[in-house]
UniProtKB/TrEMBL annotation:
Matching CDD domains: USP-like (cd00293)
InterPro entries in UniProt: Rossmann-like_a/b/a_fold, UspA
Protein name, entry field: Universal stress protein
Taxonomic source organism: Vreelandella andesensis
Domain of life of the organism encoding this protein: Bacteria
A family per Pfam: Usp
Transmembrane segments: none
Domain UspA: 1-137
Length: 139
C-alpha cells in the first residue's frame, strides 16, 4: 500500500524520536517501503552542525544507521533556511511532492492550548498534500 514513507527528523532531538522511529521501521518492513528522512536546518551554525552541508552529512549518517536497524532502503532530503521555525511547514509540504512520499510519519506532542494559534506541523502537511499522515504521539 505504501511505497515511500517520509519521516521528518530533527537531529537535535533524536532521543525523543526513537519510539516513533521504531514504528516507522515496522511499517516500512510490512510494506517493503522506501524511507526518506527529511530535515530543515538553519543556514547558520547550530548545536548540531556548523553548515548545512555538515548537517546533510550527519543526516545521511543517521539514515544509514537506521538502514542497518531496519534494512529498508533509505534516502535523505535536507532543506536549509534562514528561519527554519517559520519555514518548516512549507518545506515539509514541498518535500512530500519532491520525494514522492505517499505516507508521512511524524512524531508529535500532546495537544496544547497554543495549538489553536500555531497548528501542528502534521496538521499543515495533512491539509496541504495528498499523502496520508500518521502522527505518532511520543511521551
Amino acid at each position: 500500500m505504501f511505497k515511500n514513507i517520509m519521516v521528518p527528523v530533527d537531529l537535535a532531538h533524536l532521543e525523543v524520536l526513537e519510539p516513533a522511529l521504531s514504528i516507522v521501521a515496522d511499517l516500512a518492513k510490512q510494506y517493503d517501503a522506501h524511507i526518506t528522512y527529511v530535515s530543515v536546518t538553519a543556514n547558520t551554525p547550530t548545536s548540531v552542525a556548523r553548515t548545512p552541508q555538515e548537517y546533510e552529512q550527519k543526516l545521511d549518517a543517521f539514515a544509514q544507521s537506521r538502514h542497518q536497524v531496519h534494512g529498508q532502503p533509505v534516502s535523505i532530503k535536507v532543506y536549509s533556511s534562514t528561519d527554519p521555525v517559520a519555514n518548516v511547514d512549507k518545506q515539509l509540504v514541498d518535500a512530500v511532492e519532491e520525494t514522492g512520499a505517499d505516507l508521512v510519519m511524524m512524531a508529535t506532542h500532546l495537544p496544547r492550548h497554543l495549538d489553536i494559534i500555531m497548528p501542528s506541523h502534521g496538521g499543515k502537511v495533512a491539509t496541504h498534500t495528498d499523502a496520508s499522515v500518521f502522527l505518532i504521539r511520543v511521551p
